[in-house]
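Changelog entry

Holo records now carry the ligand SMILES as an explicit input line rather than a separate metadata file. Below, a converted record for coenzyme A, shown in the new format.
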Amino acid sequence: MSALAFRSVLRQSRASTFSRSARFASSSAKQTTLKERVAELIPVELEKVKAVRAEHGSKAFGPVLVDQLYGGMRGLPALIWDGSVLDAEEGIRFRGKTIPEIQDALPKAPGGSEPLPEGLFWLLVTGEIPTQEQVDALSKDWAARAAIPEFVEELLDRCPPTLHPMSQFSLAVTALNHDSNFAKAYQQGINKKEYWGPVFEDCMDLIAKLPNIAGRIYRNVYGRGKLPAIDPTKDYSWNLTNLLGFAENPAIVELMRLYITIHSDHEGGNVSAHTGKLVGSALSDPFLAFGAALNGLAGPLHGLANQEVLTWLLKMQKAIGENASDEAVREYVWSTLKGGQVVPGYGHAVLRKTDPRYTAQREFALKHLGDDPLFKLVGQVYSIVPDVLLQAGKAKNPWPNVDAHSGVLLNYYGLSEMQFYTVLFGVSRAFGVAAQLIWDRALGAPLERPKSYSTEAIAKIFKNKQ
Ligand SMILES: CC(C)(COP(=O)(O)OP(=O)(O)OC[C@H]1O[C@@H](n2cnc3c(N)ncnc32)[C@H](O)[C@@H]1OP(=O)(O)O)[C@@H](O)C(=O)NCCC(=O)NCCS
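Structure line, unchanged by the conversion:
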């Protein structure tokens, strides 16, 4: 397809988006559901991909350095995902929108000021801002799908409380594959053009069931009594917070809305997002794919860092006391580095500035936390760690990431069990992984299978080259 034809496809897509927005604006018109909207967008997106591949498919896209093969593929252009893009200097944009822009544009709960994650999911999947009615319909739909099978409840109830909450989470999510629409449809010989339909249903079920799984793990592990029922008149984050036992405080419900929104997606290359996509590419159903993604999120260099940050801060507070001097904090940071450990919550594989997800949480804390001693310590650490990491001379990014702040906020509202924090990150990350799985199956993404080389082969290939 020529450049002219591609531009015409883009124009058609924008025009269809515009006419859709116009339709949304009319209160009397029937509100499109998310699934109907995806069905409308699929042919447009297929044409876009076809056009780019026809015009640019045989062109080289950046050099690959041997160091990138050994260095965890940093910066290697290798994946396509339209839902979110991470800029090293600016941070994340969800479908082109910064965090402050989505905080402004997405529908809110009555009386609330943080975006509803339901709206973020709609945005990730379609690239469009949903109406309040569409977001409310998603809340209702997820509430209706929220129950988990009895055998999954029993599975969780039998886990010893000493089993890490993330292992329990991954177990339960994997077990949901028992009722996968996609796995069943595949066994019945579904046409590959129709894969996205049952995958969409599985993704909606997956997101909907996570609060019941997370709530059950929390109550079992920390002895917090019986789970209440889902309230179908309330939004997703209210229900999640209520299942954990904290919904009587509207401030933590608002925090949960912000938390789920900003942790949802961080482009396609991070460990959890990429694992979900990779496993999904084998046509494993969304429960199997997301179970695998959770196992990656459970690593301390990835999602577990939010648990590690609070552990580290509390250890520091114990060692040097409350209201410690900058000098004492600096010494403590150096002792962490000299002990061959990382400073959790600092550094990033892509970002080279303060993570805007950290900033969004700091702004929330400034509004709600007052002079909480741990919040003060987080601010003090922020004024000291980047300097120390720069002096140490190793980390490419000395600035804080998302995990540097989240634990202190949850702890302030009484959710003080650090080992549980990554489960909440996981609930949120399901939104991004699910959006990607829907589009991968809709666009016919192939099995992922990069090529690996032996060190001997690399040495041979470059033997006679300068
Ligand atoms: C996120 C992280 C894994 C990125 O890793 P990366 O892309 O390899 O980062 P860099 O290229 O900057 O790493 C270069 C060196 O600096 C070190 N470094 C990076 N961040 C560091 C930190 N916060 N504290 C101490 N050392 C750090 C690395 O361990 C590496 O050391 P090595 O050469 O001895 O292996 C890393 O910054 C880190 O471990 N941070 C702490 C954990 C964390 O907060 N994870 C959540 C990320 S959202």
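Spot-checked after migration. Confidence is low (pLDDT under 50) at residues 1-28. Residues 303-413 form a domain with the Cytochrome p450-Terp; domain 2 fold (CATH 1.10.230.10).
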